[in-house]
Amino acid sequence: MGSLVLKKRDFSRDDTSFESLRKEGIRLIQELSGGVWTDYNLHDPGVTMLEHLCYGITDLVHRTGFPTVDYFTGEEGFVPEAVGMFSPEAILPCGPVTGDDLRKHLFDRLEGVENVWVEALFPGLWRILLRAAPGVDAAYLMAEATDVYHAVRNLGEDLLEVVVLTEDPYTLEAEMELDGSRSPSVVMAEIYHVCNGLLAPGIRPESHQAMLEEEVELATVFHGPLTRHGILSRLGRSSVVERVAVTEVIGAVRKVEGVVSVKKLCFFKGGLRHFVCIQRENKGSVLSLAIPGHDSDNRVALFLEGKRLAVDIDQFKGLYSALEFGGRRPVPHDPASLYTLPEATFRDFGEYTSIQDHFPNVYGINAFGVPPSYPEERKAAARQLKGYLALMEQFLADGMATLDAMPDLFSPEPAVRRTRFGRFLDSGHISGMDGLRTKKEPEAAHRALMKKYDAFHRRRNGFLTHLLALYGETVEKEPLRRDGSYFSDTALDEALIQVRIALLKRLPEISAHRFRGTRQGHRVEGERNIPPFQMKCEILLGFYHHKHDSLTQAITRDSLELVSDEHYLGLHAGTLAADLDADGSGHMAPISPAPKEPRLTCGAVRELMVSIVPFRHNLLFDSLLRGGGQLNRYRLVHLSDCDDVQIAFHMGDTWVYLGSTRTIWRAAHLVHLLRRYLMYINMATEGMHVVEHLLLRPRSFGTDPETPPDGFYVHGISILFPAWTDRFASDVFREITMEMVAGQLPVHLQPSFHFLSFDEMQHFETLWTRWQDAAAGGDESRRDELADALKTLLQSR
């Protein structure tokens, strides 16, 4: 079966040329009025008007034929991000995933290293081994490597330690016969370079520009972690060299140009000569080659026809350094210099010139108009024709304005609030046009007409969906649904727009670092330290934009305590004026929707705190929180003009007294204000916490390779949600949430989902905050104590 494709329009038919349009116009005229209109020659005024309209349409068609990039180019030039498109370096690379990725990233970011190795001690637990460049302080390098790692640490992974390996130097001792074709200093420098490559091979990046010159695709250049010093495609051995056979060294030296034979070769260290092999002293060392600094240090003898050749040591050292370190770390490249954006030209697609200006003077509708001496009847006929043509021209002008508004149609900015665009034609476009209009504010009427037929939410969502699809992303409607009284269909569509915009604007960060974890020990006041995966889940689930990590703070900030319905009913906090049935009969009156929702200001919240009975007792019960946004659960009780108006709320099979006021208007106002407040509380307390089990391990974990790791810490991750909000009270929403979150996690991680009560969440957040503070402060014993308490809490669920 062939692949399914969308067929492109066949432009070879040229059905939008002037002749094709004119021919189609004549056909329609014959079909519609052939019985009364029979003259289709050039002199016929109707044919003249038809040809001018065809000319105007060809202008519109012409404006649709420019390179695509021109339609997204403003006066400031083509800015990809302004139309939801991202540069290659922003969207193509990703964070380190494999051990080799981590080696590349560390080598690229650490200026003072010659090589980097990583070891996976247990699943997700890394040890970093560094070979420092000469003269680099080991303590500084360890601290820098730790910071670099934690900036890109993946979910479910952590760093056990950073080790700067000590040098384990061996001296090369050899006798070799040369052919005399090259300088002895050059040959000796290459011999040492080859030997060092076997003992302690370094990493050699290739410059980005060189790779592109070899016709490597740009996507390959930006594949994996984004490196500044070139592409590290050849990393050499993935582990530190343990031992090197002397025969292997001899074989490599024989291949050096200018070497005829190797008479003798061994390695010298501590008074001993090693003719078979050499091996590193311990796990904390790395094999290295001692480079002679003076003639007296040189143990390599080079011969030509039996005569020993002199080697210029200073020249040798310079040549060796060039071979060993030259090009080791290419100059950092600006990624934007590796490609060229499409050539773009700014064009004013919305500029409009009336076709009436091209009519012959005899018609009296161009800029010259009808001569003043002509009779009024002739002037009236010209105005009539002008108005008739203006209607058709308005369609043309609106079409051109839509082309001009392409950057707005694809913009990820929330400020864009329309998808229908028009160009209001006034006397500046069509001479005498203002005198033909009868409405007082015709331009406002034109804008209102555009708005009336602008299916904004459907079209705006369509454009944003298209942009997200370019990057393989979608936003589902189902997770965003709330109770009907919270979200109308329009409000749901509006929420979809906001979610899609939020996802699109954060896409480079979310896409490149989707599996990155939190940065350990990094806490900034007012800044949330959450993994990009969590950020994406919160966007897709429509969670409130939190400025802090606490999910309970929105309730506790107003000194409220969330209690069960049974607990609240046991307090008998006020009674209704009459014993009313649960079906709402008797003296109960429903509340009409507010023409305009009240603003939830600080003063409004204070008004609620003193007016609503549960709030006066610093209480908020479950049913009120979860169902308080539904207007049909409220009633007003008014027995007589002498009595206060009471507010009743439907809880299960009974009505609960919430408060009373003197007037019906004020009671209704309080209900609408209460609804807004409860809707805010529901949204403000929605969210999630992500706990990586490996981060809770005791500090002794992983130090003994003989001890198997506790299964709790390996690949485990806990996701905690509030159980008390309106959406999370639904089992369906919980299933949707768990499925969506699990789909965003790396497949090797095993998520555990927990839905906590308000009290349980408060307890967790207290432990979690203290654990983060202890981790940031370096208090290891306190950190282990709190980690054990968190582990106990999670395992008890």
Question: Can you describe this structure?
Answer:
The protein is of the alpha/beta class and 797 residues long. Helices cover 39% and strands 15% of the residues. The chain is built from 27 helices and 22 strands. Strands 6, 8, 9, 11, 12 and 13 form a six-stranded mixed sheet that branches. It has a four-stranded antiparallel sheet with strand order 15-17-18-19. The protein has a three-stranded mixed sheet with strand order 3-4-5, covered by helices on one side. β17 (634-637) and β18 (645-651) form a beta hairpin. α7 crosses α11 (313-325). The longest helix has 29 residues, at 376-404. The chain is flat.
Poorly predicted parts: 581-586
Percent of residues in helical segments? 25-40%
Number of strands: 22
Query: How is the biggest beta sheet arranged?
Result: 6 strands, mixed
Gyration radius, to the nearest Å?
39 Å
